[in-house]
Amino acid sequence: MIPPPWTPPPTPDPLTPARDITHRHFQTGDQVIVLKGAADGELWGDSMRIVAPSWHTPTDEDGWRLRDATGGAQTYITAHPRYLVHLSRRCADCLIYLRAMEDHLLPRYVGRADLVDCGWYTTTALNQLVHIADAGGSR
């Protein structure tokens, strides 16, 4: 019997769960990214567009309905604002968070050219994007 491929545990992310960002920081139409890991010395993630306000059930807080332009099985998902970073405009809050994530994560993957998914997020059956720190019993 061949053992299943080993999956490394998620890289710790102490920054996103502690991020204090409000629902009104983002607006319908904003282009955002959900950071998921590192690739070739840079952060990478899923780029999406904010469509409408939506309740984020896993955290019981205001969230946003996002549209993934690449489509797929989960073209629309709901996410908490603290998971999002502006792509469509430069704002101080998002830039500070982005820089902190770079400082925290990129040194761990110096010299790696492959795409590293840090395993911070899962998507529930209700198409709710959930950070592992917020998952609780919903995973």
Q: Can you describe what's shown?
A:
- With 139 residues, the protein is mainly beta.
- It has two helices and eight strands; from the N terminus they run H-E-E-E-E-E-H-E-E-E.
- Strands 1, 2, 3, 4, 5 and 6 form a six-stranded antiparallel sheet that branches. Strands 7-8 form a two-stranded antiparallel ribbon.
What topology does this entry show?
Layout: H1 15-18, E1 31-39, E2 42-56, E3 61-67, E4 76-79, E5 84-86, H2 92-105, E6 115-117, E7 121-123, E8 129-131
Antiparallel strand pairs: 1-2, 1-5, 1-6, 2-3, 3-4, 7-8
Residues in helix, %:
10-25%
User: Please, how many helices?
Assistant: 2
Strand segment tally:
8
Largest sheet: 6 strands, antiparallel
> What portion of the residues fall into strands of 2 or more residues?
25-35%
SSE run? HEEEEEHEEE
Radius of gyration from the CA trace? 15 Å
* Mean pLDDT across all amino acids: 89
Structural class of the secondary elements?
mainly beta
Short description:
By secondary structure, this protein is mostly beta strands. It has helices at 15-18, 92-105, and strands spanning 31-39, 42-56, 61-67, 76-79, 84-86, 115-117, 121-123, 129-131.
Main traits of this protein?
139 residues; mainly beta; 6-stranded antiparallel beta sheet; two-stranded antiparallel ribbon; 2 helices; globular
